[in-house]
């Protein structure tokens, strides 16, 4: 349910839409949507609406892609009641440190930009639950994300990332992790401690083997639910892809057998 808001404090702008939107809990949320020419030159008064909870500054139609933001003003930090910020499909190369002031932020959508780094201050967003970073220019995984302990959703697919840092193990509440279409060749053991993962997409990388404890991710099930676990497009040989299709239990059994055989071979060589 949406209803337009009006009043003397809200100047009329044809490309601004200030709405009241009902949340899942039934409470009204103030939502501000900016589109069209306003995106290419954001007016300062936009950041005076400090009670805004949802802010959308994304071109929604292909015809609007000629109007994109080149930067996010530092005044974004004034909107401290924001719970959701959508600034995807723009031409952003960086995000201002002031985003760290948005302590109530739960959802941050930055997909389809030109980002290669995130500010350290983003790690101050302790209430952040969902971050979307797909189709940017990341070559290094932004480790600052690992300081957001309540994160349940992370999409950093379609970048140029080669290494996932061990600190990803700090994201204990993560349920969805999308890493497809990168250049990842190895997964850290810490990934296997994220036992709340229900969806893990690793397709189209350079992964040749999985960590020994990968079978600990018991909520993943590629055999019955293809959307849960994706490894297509990798040169995987340990374990073979047909083993992975059997799900976590098959993977765990494979590594158990692999190590038992390895120990036997070592003992045999020593005895001989």
Automatic annotation (TrEMBL):
A Pfam family that the UniProt record links to this protein: LRR_8
Record's keyword annotation contains Cell membrane: no
Sorted UniProt keywords: Leucine-rich repeat, Repeat
Superkingdom per UniProt: Eukaryota
Repeat as UniProt keyword: yes
GO cellular component terms given for this protein: cytoplasm
All residue ranges annotated as the Disease resistance R13L4/SHOC-2-like LRR domain in the record: 145-220
SUPFAM superfamilies: L domain-like (SSF52058)
Record protein name field: Disease resistance R13L4/SHOC-2-like LRR domain-containing protein
Species the sequence originates in: Xenopus laevis (African clawed frog)
